[in-house]
Amino acid sequence: MPDKNIPLVLVIFGGSGDLAHRKLYPALFNLFEQGLLARNFAVLGTARRPWTHEYLREQVLEAVREANPDTELDEHELTAFTQHFYYQAHDVTNPDHYQTLKKAISKLDQKYAAGHNRIFYLAMAPRFFGTIAEQIYEQHLLGDGFNRLVIEKPFGRDLKSANKLNDQISHAFAEKDVYRIDHYLGKELVQNILPMRLSNPLIKNIWNHRYIKNVQVTLAESLGVEARGGYYETSGALRDMVQNHIFQIITLLAMPEPADLTAGAIHAAKQALWDSVIFPSSAMVARNFTRGQYDKSSSTFAYLEEPNVDPKSLTETFVAGEIKFLGGPLAKVPIFFRTGKRLREKQSRIDIVLQSMNNLYGKASSNTLSIIVDPVMRFYITINGKKITEPGLRPENLVYRFSDEDLRQVPDGYERLLHDVLVEDRTNFTHWRELEKFWEYIDTVEDAWLAEDKGIDHLDQYAPFKMGPAAANKIFEDASDHWIYR
Ligand code: NAD
User: For residue 451, is pLDDT > 90?
Assistant: First the structure.
């Protein structure tokens, strides 16, 4: 059992922000309630606003209540929890402020006998990540115990900027102490991919190109960019969703079996897969990728009309593509992916399509294994059975459902990942070597798009609340293939 009594001071940069409010404070409360946080821990929230300790505590209280609308919370427990919170006004771009912050951390360290253990959580706009990491180092904020850095996405916007950020971080933190969050890796059904693949002969034995025809990963959102147009203009669907979440999901589907379940073995297997990735040529990008922008509807703006978006923007809000590896069990199996905003509904899912075979009964559907990650958690296998009153076959779903009791027990992704940081479990965080390959691949596609130089003509405007541009249905190698989720 991991040691539950790990004293520490947790410094949250961006303590007044949306992520801290909606995700981090409720997650910390859940860990506290379960006794997974030590009694001697302190959380120091920082941001520019001149809040008091008391005001931050009220905000934390409100955040926990909002996250648990249907639960009667133990008020005594809540108050005990919020007493661990402190606030320090801090502008991350002002070096002098780090001296004040340092004193505040030392004071809390003493008060809570926190063993000089520190976790720094960067819940801030990515442009500040490098500066904060450098200042932590230069202004001697590191403690004599452990020092861990938790960093949100995006980690750079291409390989060059990711490299620069990694250099800035690496003065202060060794790779083993950097926890790059990909919150998809905290989701129940994403964490279930490897156990499902490796513990079932029914699945494990067909997990190869002889039986699997293609794999399809869809991360669909119904929202548009809303207030985040400014950020989105520097990113786009490929960088915002494929570079991290989609690539991590594909990695879990296609990586070789690890030697064991340690973080080291799992990262080694992931890296072995990515060492075998086939980088697409420009011709392959032109053939196997498609991108688009959402158009307006009667009640919603087109992407080009959103606030802080350049009316001539070439930023894609939808992308579909294909990736292949030479190694791993799915070597040479086409893996298709797509993600977009303003699609029909929010849905994150994986469909694994099996090769079809001749049979004596006539037309049969492809066997598929579908894993629905969000918003309902479920997976099912589609198989054929006989029609009841006439000749022929009909598809049926064998469904693996989660009971209400199961669902109540599933922790939020952030709760899981924060706990992993506490107990030093790096399994579900992105290693620098994975990230390097992810960016190298994304850069290859972005470069091919730039070289096409056909600008807006290559961005299909797609109707909102459908499944993206029609061209996304034509990226399959085999004309008989189609998206299972339509
Ligand atoms: P936000 O804009 O709500 O919060 C930013 C915080 O930074 C605020 O507390 C603000 O006061 C503070 N800040 C801004 N400039 C500052 C400065 N110069 N000095 C000190 N503090 C300053 O942003 P957010 O939505 O909480 O996102 C934070 C990070 O988390 C981003 O990297 C984002 O990509 C990532 N993320 C957010 C979510 C989410 O649901 N909000 C989900 C996934 C990832």
Answer: no
